[in-house]
Structures are given as C-alpha cells and as structure tokens.
Amino acid sequence: MYERARDALLGGTPGTHPAGVRPEVRASWARSLAAAVDPERARPPHDYDRAELTDRRAAHPLASVLPVLRETLTDAAEQARHMMVVTDGRGRVLWREGARAVLTRAERVDLVEGTRWSEDAVGTNAMGTALAGAAPVRIHSAEHLVSAYHPWTCAAAPVRDPATGQVVGTVDVTGPEESFHPTTLALVTAAARLAEHRLLAIAEAHDRRLREEYWPHLTRLGGTPGALLSAHGRVLAASPGSEFPERIALPDGGDRVVVDGVVVGGAPVGGGSVAGVLEPLGEGWLLRLSVGGPARTALTLPLLGARTPVVARRDGRPVRLGLRHAEVLALLALHPEGLTADQLAAALYGDGGRAITVRAEVHRLRRAVGEDTVRTQPYRLVADVDADFLRLRAALREGRVRDAAAEAARGPLLPTSDAPEIRRAREQLAVAVRSALLRADDPDALWTLVRAGRTAGTDDEELRHRLRGLLPSSDPRRDELG
C-alpha cells in the first residue's frame, strides 16, 4: 500500500492520499519533497569528521545521559538485531550502538556517526521526522521516502533539555523491517523521558550550586527587585517579596531587557512590563529591575587575582581599566564615606603623593566609568558596588569560611599593585583568610584554597597539613595532597 501511494505521489497521479497512509507520514513526504530530496538517490551528508565528532560528543548535553540510554535500549537492541542511534538537534548521528551485523549493514546506507538525517537531507525517517514534528514516531519500510531505506524500520523520540526548553536530539532504534517489534516505539519514548528526567536532575543540581554561589549578588540589591538567571534566562531565585515568570527572554545583544508579569509586594509592576539591566555572573545573570525611579548605576569590580587590563562592568557593560584606575576604584570601594585628594594621593603613592596627580587620574577615570559613578568633594562612588574583595571581607566578618575560601581562591587583591593601601589591604585579607581556615574544621573550604594555591604555584604547607588532618583516610583528595 505504502509503495503504491509513494509511487503515485512521485508520479503525480491523482488520489495520492489513500486511506491508511498515516497523516504524519503524508506530511513528512510533503516536507521532504518541498526540500528537493531525491527519492531514489538521496544520501545523508557527512557533517562531522572523526576529530570534530569527538568534540561535539563531549560538548553535547546528551553525553551525560548516555549511560541511561544504554541501560534502557542497547541490550534490547542487540538481542533484537537492532541498533540504538542518538542524534543532536539537527539529526546528526553522534552515537550508534547495537548488534554488530546491523551496524555493518547500516554502513552501506551511510547510517554512521557524523552523518545528518534531517528530513531536508534524506527525507522521511524516524530521526528526522521526530525532530520535524517534535514528537515520537515510527517509520516502517516504504514509509521512508528514499527507496534505499525501505528494508529498514526505525522508531525515534525527541529529547528536550529542561535547561533551555529546546529539543537537543533524538534517541532512535533502527533495524531490519522483518525483525522490528511493535512495542519498540513505546520503549524508545520511555528512554527519551528517562533521559529528560536525568537532564532535569543535572540541571537542578547545577541551579542549586549557582544559587548558593550568586546569592550574595542578589542580596546586595537592597530594596531593588531583581533575580538570578541561568545562562539561558531561567529564573533561579528572586529578591524577597518579588515574583518573576519562570523564564526571561534574553536579548540577542546588549544588557537591557523588558520583563512581563513581575509582581512586587503582591502588586503587578510597571503596568505589566518593566525594564531591567542584566549583569553577567560567569554562568548566569543578575537581573536588576528599574522600579520606583531611576536606578543607581551597578558597578562590578572583579579585582581578586586581576591582571591588567582589568575588566570592570558598569550596568553590565565592560569597562577596561588600567592598573591605576583599578586601584582608585578599589580604594573608593573600601572607603564608601569618600576620600579627599590628599587622602587618595597618600593611599596610592605614600607620603610623596601629590593631590594634583590624583585629580588628573580621577578626571580620566570619570570619563571611563561615568561622572555619575565617581563623584567629587570628596571622591566617592555613587553606585551599587559589587566587588569580590568586599564579598570576601563580608564572608570573613560573618564567619562564612566556605564563601571566603571560594572568593579568596580567585587570587590576591590586585596582585601587581604597589600602592601602599592596596598592598596593606591585600596582606590583611590574606592573613585573615588563612587564620579563619586554620581555625575552622571545614575540609571543603581548606581544599578550595589549597587547590587554588597549588594551581597558582603558591602552595601553603601549613594549610595542606591542616587539611590532611581533617580528611578521612578514604577521601581521594588525600592522594592529591601528596
């Protein structure tokens, strides 16, 4: 029946949609022919060579769930003389495993790693059609548009990444048409759902880590509503008393965004839409809303371990700074009450510092970061400052040794600076961190700093000794300590 319907369709014979040809197959045939797929000679393109395939596999989200798919499908596929195929979101084959005889037979039709099986490349097939329809599908024998694949039957289901909401690939079982079992589609669909549950568990663990790491950024917004976002715009946490939609549409460029559906204090904000500023946080974003009047400038100063040029951020936009300007901003952040020109000169140059030199430096700095950010008489910062060295000081003051270790692992405050007060602040932080960790019974905090020190070539034997005494004999980290 399917061969007659296919031949009639290709020949332009009237009545090309007889009863019994499934609607999803007819729709796939139409899409394939519209893409100019040749039903007699089409072959899948080879998109990836072996080297590129290795890199693509390692970076793909489905790599983390491959053990689940193998456990669910590979043994069953081998016993039934089939193979499991896993593709990316464009239908490129990343992995295939199963019965050796079937793998070898599939090579004759180029069903191999690195080839692309999207509908626009090879016509109707389970992998490509599952992607096109975003739904599980079985394609049997002559339901394939290309005649070379008529001896095969395949069942595939798409897999969505909960972190992005996007289809990232398919899982498929393919084999000779005569040995294909009618329950295979249900098995493949179940395997795809298991993979999605595993991806969700991985995403939730990642989200928990980001919330813990970035929560201080959110608390420092004070009364300004804001949220922590994942790299893809999913809302991880919101400031107290505020509600955000589950996901924020990130802009293609720039740091400005408009958010709908925000509620603060039980009331909608901004008549349904409110503007906000995005600030990058490594693996995510800090969103600060412009509510209740003009928002203060957000100034981010990542100065721990920083080498020149230092990249600060003003309202999320990068600002490249030389060492002297970074020193001035660090000193003003350490003195929120402000500094006179004479005080700033002494802090930068010592007793020989001259106020006129400082005035010239601050004039240039204000042009770089904005006159509304650095004010005069006295020199001070008028901004919401987020500085890693201030977070470190706060963590030490509040006894949060793990947070202190995580911040200190970035490196010392402006390590190349010889400014007297910067040097003094750098030494005070180093001593305070070391003392706090030696007093604490926290091997994880110690491990964070010891590992960072070894990477930077500044191994601390006393910290290592303390860590070795806290780790149980079965802990693998003992071996790394030497």
Broad shape: elongated
What is the CATH third-level topology name of the largest domain?
Answer: Beta-Lactamase
How far apart the termini lie comes to 72 Å
For the largest beta sheet, what order do the strands appear in spatially? Answer: 2-1-5-4-3
Average residue-wise pLDDT: 88
Rg, rounded, reads: 30 Å
Written description of the protein model:
This protein is of the alpha+beta class and 482 residues long. The chain has three domains: 2-203, Beta-Lactamase; 220-295, no CATH class; 299-440, Winged helix-like DNA-binding domain superfamily/Winged helix DNA-binding domain (Arc Repressor Mutant, subunit A), CATH 1.10.10. The protein is built from 17 helices and 19 strands. It has helices spanning 2-11, 23-34, 50-59, 66-79, 100-107, 119-122, 126-133, 184-219, 323-334, 341-349, 355-369, 388-397, 401-408, 420-439, 443-456, 461-470, 477-481; strands at residues 83-88, 93-98, 137-140, 152-161, 166-176, 226-230, 235-238, 242-243, 256-260, 263-264, 267-268, 273-280, 284-289, 298-301, 310-314, 317-321, 374-375, 380-381, 384-387. The strands form five sheets. The chain has a five-stranded antiparallel beta sheet, sandwiched between helices. Helix 4 runs antiparallel to helix 8, helix 10 (341-349) crosses helix 11 (355-369) and helix 13 packs across helix 14 (420-439). The chain starts with a helix and ends with a helix.
